[in-house]
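Good morning N.,

You mentioned wanting to compare the apo and holo forms, so I went ahead and generated the holo version with NAP. This is what I fed in:
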Amino acid sequence: MSVIYNRVALIGLGLIAGSMAHAMRRAGLAGEIVGTSRSAETRAVAAEIGLCDRITETAAEAVVGADLVVLAVPIGAMAAVAEEIGPYLAPGATVTDVGSVKREVIVQVAPFLPDTVHFVPAHPLAGTEHSGPRSGFATLFDDRYTLLTPVEGTELEATAKLRTLWEGCGARVEEMDADHHDLVLAVTSHTPHLIAYTMVGVADDLRRVTDSEVIKYSAAGFRDFTRIAASDPTMWRDIFLSNKDATLEILGRFTEELFALQRAIRTGDGDHLHAYFTRTRAIRRGIIEAGQDTDAPNFGRTTVKKELPGG
Ligand code: NAP
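and this is what came out, ligand included:
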């Protein structure tokens, strides 16, 4: 593939930006990759492992002359970053982000962007429970979806170019409205994470089962919950605070279903349970047929499996 953007500025150098740097390099998509992170420590690690061609101390410096700027910080930090870089953005540049919630990022970021730049919010549906500049890898986005939620009035060409970049990074790309994105993600990612956090919290609180028993006898179900519940606390706090309405709606529905299952167990309604589990099993089959997970027993895991659905 050939160069799509001459200079890409990565603001934030964690898992997602780091993986983008590796993936862009793998396919030669960027003329130059400039990166920055708020802490000197992260910048030093990024420099040490050669994550970018150039590291700057500030976000304002990083975006000068960049034709693509990627905001890859926690959602709660997006507004401050946008405010800092706004005056330094090159006319005609595209600004994008990788935040796991889209409407709130648009609300926070758009007011700080000059009319001369294009804003194309994006969300790669890929991640792991690891963070930081060392956690990225080139194949993270391969065959995973990246959703683009262009704002009204965005030039089609700017969106098309960003789509080409993500496809070059290995992703399948689709476009959707920001509100719809937030509802879909509340179902597929945000509420399941909340449930995993709760289940791990319950096990921790349950004094009748000792911690060592939980660890020793942890079967696949609980082990997978603990992996999800080990995700970055800052990122997930921000996701729930910024996707409040959709998460609360899905959580409400979840609670209703849970009560129905609770009742079926109490009243011995095996038919209800069996019919319910038959329906849910078909959903799993659909995910496998769509190529979004493996059919291998225990997720094809031998000892450790790195990839997880992202936020
Ligand atoms: P990460 O590995 O924890 O890296 C976060 C980066 O943001 C670091 O460079 C960090 O800087 C910087 N940062 C943290 N707080 C900041 C603040 N208050 N102001 C400025 N910079 C700050 O995070 P990540 O997993 O790459 O996530 C980045 C974004 O991607 C988030 O918006 C998240 O919603 C989204 N996302 C994540 C996943 C996932 O599964 N991880 C999946 C899809 C999308 P220092 O290290 O210098 O402190």
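The mean pLDDT is 92.

Happy to go through it together on a call whenever suits you.

Best,
F.
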